[in-house]
DNA sequence: CCTCATTTGTAGTGATCACTACAGATGTGA
DNA sequence: TCACATCTGTAGTGATCACTACAAATGAGG
């Protein structure tokens, strides 16, 4: 059995380049011409390896998800709900403005509203954002069972608020918000979500 | 002086249809074919009236901004900072899920990441979102001067947090979040931002 | 070395993109 | 009534889109 000519490019490295293009331009704004140029391969190689543009996007997204979800698991291992949220939001502030990556998060930059040929893209991105929210909610349910959250706290609502903040931070980062901007709004959000026990906000006058 | 054949379509009504298309599909996902079909006009009429696709988008955006900013002015007239934020967030929860409109907000759905031909679009949308944030920050500065906010509150950071929530809610709405979802996370956010003075969060046991 | 499965680069494919030339239609002013 | 300025519909324009036919190249079995 002959095995055929071996692939001359590194699949994972090429996916990283594709991820970068989709991240900066969105699914619809990324053209095959730019993708192949950045990946350093020709269209037939791309189509043989990934099927079509959407297949390439999904493969790049899978690679992105693997990173994100590995990082998320680390964060969810933090001892308290407050610590989980703090690391998640402050970590996201750093990640969204990391000069090594395009600004923002591929889960949002990929495309929120697309045309007919790309209608799967917003749905797929929403699905992946929802996965993170489920993991966060489950972590809050555990915290609630451990007495680590006030008894009236609703894990699902808390998780949805944290995810809302994260997605809002993403919109801001893509519009040029600085790392400091994001950290300071995270500080304020954390103070509201997990008020320091001894401080009396409106005591003196 | 002859005045030429009069325009046969209603400019404002046509812009409303175009706004709807851009809102659902984003700038890049909206094709001229769909725009002209929905607007009920032919390409030459569109180009005579609006110049090109970007001109049409800007005109639709201007119409959208006029509505948004008029509504924003009403909200900023609320007597207290807390009331401003409450009306803004709860109002946004209703607006983002209003079945009369596409889900989400045109300022975000229009396009966060676009290709080379549309690079002005994300920047223009960011500029308009920033306008709302400035108005909100100025309202908080007024509240701060009136003693309506705690002395350590920073209006700019508070405004950026509220806008972050709004933009995050937009991402969620475009992904199918229900009106109830949004209202409940807004309730939680409001309780954190403006804690009820008499309630002791961790008193009983 | 030969066969064969697969990849690679070249050079395209039809479809669709935003956009427009053109001629007929339409209403205004003289 | 007639010239003119503008709009309207038909029917395209070249450019670019995602995608592919094809033959040379490449290396693993036999």
3D architecture notes:
The structure is a homodimer of 205-residue chains. Chain A is mainly alpha-helical and 205 residues long. The first copy, chain A, has a single domain (11-193), classed as Tetracycline Repressor, domain 2. Helix content of chain A is 68%, strand content 0%. Chain A contains 9 helices and no strands. Chain A has helices at residues 11-29, 32-39, 43-50, 53-76, 81-96, 106-109, 120-145, 155-174, 179-193. In chain A, helix 3 (43-50) packs across helix 4 (53-76), helix 5 (81-96) runs parallel beside helix 8 and helix 7 (120-145) crosses helix 8. The first copy, chain A, is elongated, with a radius of gyration of 20 Å. Chain A starts with 10 loop residues before the first helix and ends in a 12-residue tail after the last helix. The mean pLDDT of chain A is 95. The structure holds a DNA duplex (30 and 30 nucleotides).
Name the descriptors.
homodimer; mainly alpha; Tetracycline Repressor, domain 2; DNA-binding
- The CATH class of chain A is identified as Mainly Alpha
Number of E-type strands of chain A: 0
Question: For the largest interface in this structure, which chains are involved and how many residues does each contribute?
Answer: A-B, 57 and 57 residues
Task: Please name the CATH architecture of chain A.
Answer: Orthogonal Bundle
- Oligomerization category of the chains in this entry: homodimer
Main sheet: strands, sense, barrel of chain A: none
Choose one word for the global shape of chain A: elongated
Average pLDDT figure of chain A: 95
Mind telling me the C-alpha Rg of chain A? 20 Å
Count of separate structural domains of chain A: 1
How far is the first residue's CA from the last residue's CA of chain A?
A: 86 Å
Helix content of chain A: 55-70%
Looking at CATH, the homologous superfamily of chain A is: Tetracycline Repressor, domain 2
Question: Unreliable runs of chain A, pLDDT <50, ≥5 residues?
Answer: none
Q: Total number of helical segments of chain A?
A: 9
Order of helices and strands of chain A: HHHHHHHHH
- In terms of structural class, how would the helical and strand content of chain A be classed? mainly alpha
**Can you tell me the CATH topology of chain A?**
Tetracycline Repressor, domain 2
Q: Strand share of the residues of chain A?
A: under 5%
């Amino acid at each position: 059995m002959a095995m055929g000519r071996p692939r001359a490019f590194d699949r994972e490295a090429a996916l990283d380049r594709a991820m970068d293009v989709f991240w900066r331009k969105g699914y619809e704004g990324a053209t095959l011409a730019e993708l192949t140029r950045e990946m350093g391969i020709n269209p037939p190689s791309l189509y043989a390896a990934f099927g079509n543009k959407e297949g390439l996007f999904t493969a790049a997204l899978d690679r992105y998800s693997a990173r994100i979800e590995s990082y998320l698991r680390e964060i969810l291992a933090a001892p308290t709900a407050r610590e989980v949220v703090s690391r998640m939001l402050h970590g996201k502030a750093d990640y969204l403005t990391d000069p090594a990556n395009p600004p923002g998060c591929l889960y949002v930059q990929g495309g929120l509203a697309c045309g007919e040929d790309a209608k799967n893209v917003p749905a797929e991105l929403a699905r992946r954002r929802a996965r993170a929210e489920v993991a966060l909610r489950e972590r809050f349910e555990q915290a609630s069972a451990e007495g680590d959250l006030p008894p009236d706290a609703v894990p699902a609502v808390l998780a949805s608020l944290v995810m809302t903040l994260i997605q809002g931070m993403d919109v801001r980062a893509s519009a040029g918000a600085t790392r400091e901007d994001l950290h300071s709004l995270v500080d304020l959000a954390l103070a509201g979500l997990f008020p320091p026990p001894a401080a009396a906000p409106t005591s003196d006058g």
